[in-house]
Design a protein that fits this description.
The protein is 41% helix and 17% strand. The chain is an alpha/beta fold and 343 residues long. The chain has two domains: 11-130, Four Helix Bundle (Hemerythrin (Met), subunit A), CATH 1.20.120.420; 135-341, 3-Layer(aba) Sandwich (Rossmann fold). A hairpin with a 2-residue loop joins strand 15 (320-323) and strand 16. It is globular. The active site is at 233 (proton donor). Belongs to the EIF-2B alpha/beta/delta subunits family. MtnA subfamily. InterPro entries: IF-2B-related, IF-M1Pi, IF_2B-like_C, Initiation_fac_2B_a/b/d, M1Pi_N, NagB/RpiA_transferase-like.
């Protein structure tokens, strides 16, 4: 496999400031934003300049640490934690990362709030990078016989630590076996597959074809893929999975075609406090993301729009939940809890 020697990065930390690759400008421009605190980090998360469940957690962790460097006080800690946690509602990593850094800062005491927060944010980032490598190996074991993989949205380095989640599994599979290729769904309405996954796969030298979301079910029925691999934004305690809208349809199509439907994500996306998928808050975004394309209206003015950013795939449709701590096949409450509890 021909792989770009330079690893793809979406988040860079220099010890004081955070730089994020503005994903709203890809694939045509590679623009780096310099973030300095909670306010601009929350804004970058809301407008999807930085995205992907693990990466928004990483960014928020650094955002809180930077805010405390500028304003080392309990008041700043609480205000920044609330601001960052509320930037987007569906992915569990965001609130969990903020809570982790907040707890570390509180435990350190008033005089060392900022240094403790910085250290914890760096540990969280390192944990996500390590999780990516480990889950990639587990996922490639699960899909050892697969060669053509259908995937949805973007689950590479632009979305998470290391090489990604679902895309990291594909990269590891390609490193082990010849002939691995990808069917990448465009992923309406924001085209994260067309803009971001296609950009990553091109950089990495992985053969792929871009398809419209509506073509996936027919191609799966015709046997043109061996498996479906997606990422996840939140895994409920019973194994239900929230992911980019359109994922549920791929799971149904995979089940009808008798193909594996694999969800890959770090255990930081498991939320044992959420009992099932019905309890997951689904973010509704601006209708213009649907009624416009590239800023150009594609629907009549005033057209009513529904724009849920995520959907929920029931655990019963998931062949395997792949994490850095191992794999839960046919995930359920017991196996998800067991994964979360592993060291």
């Amino acid at each position: 496999m021909a792989v770009d020697a330079a690893p793809i990065q979406a988040v860079r930390w220099d010890g004081r400031r955070l730089a994020v690759l503005d994903q709203t400008r890809l694939p045509h421009e590679e623009v780096w934003l310099s973030l300095t605190g909670a306010q601009d980090t929350a804004q970058a998360i809301r407008r999807l300049a930085v995205r992907g469940a693990p990466n928004i957690g990483i960014a928020a962790a650094y955002g809180l640490a930077m805010e405390l460097s500028a304003r080392p006080s309990l008041g700043a800690l609480e205000a920044a934690s609330e601001l960052l946690s509320g930037a987007r509602p569906t992915a569990v990593n965001l609130a969990a990362a903020v809570a982790r850094v907040r707890t570390a800062a509180l435990g350190a005491g008033p005089s060392t709030l900022a240094s403790a927060a910085r250290a914890e944010a760096q540990r969280l980032h390192a944990d996500e990078d390590a999780a990516s490598a480990a889950l990639a190996a587990h996922g490639a074991d699960v899909l050892a016989s697969a060669r053509t993989i259908l995937t949805h949205c973007n689950t590479g380095a632009l979305a998470t630590g290391g090489r990604g989640s679902g895309l990291a599994v594909i990269l590891e599979l390609a490193a082990r076996h010849e002939g691995v290729r990808v069917l990448a769904c465009e992923t309406r309405p924001l085209l994260q597959g067309a803009r971001l996954t296609a950009w990553e796969l091109t950089r990495l030298g992985i053969p792929f074809a871009l398809i419209v979301d509506g073509a996936a079910a027919g191609l799966l029925r015709r046997g043109e893929a061996d498996a479906v691999v997606v990422g996840c934004d939140r895994v409920a305690a019973n194994g239900d999975v929230a992911n980019k809208v359109g994922t549920y349809a791929h799971a149904l199509a995979a089940r009808a075609a008798g193909l594996p439907f694999v969800v890959a994500g770090p255990t930081s996306t498991i939320d044992l406090a959420t009992p099932d998928g019905d309890a997951i808050e689904i973010e509704e975004r601006d209708g213009a993301e649907v009624s416009e394309l590239g800023g150009v209206a594609i629907a009549p003015a005033g057209t009513p729009v529904r724009n849920p950013a995520f959907d929920v795939t029931p655990a019963g449709l998931v062949t395997a939940l792949v994490t850095e701590r191992g794999v839960a096949r046919d995930p359920d409450t017991a196996s998800v809890a067991a994964l979360a509890a592993r060291p």
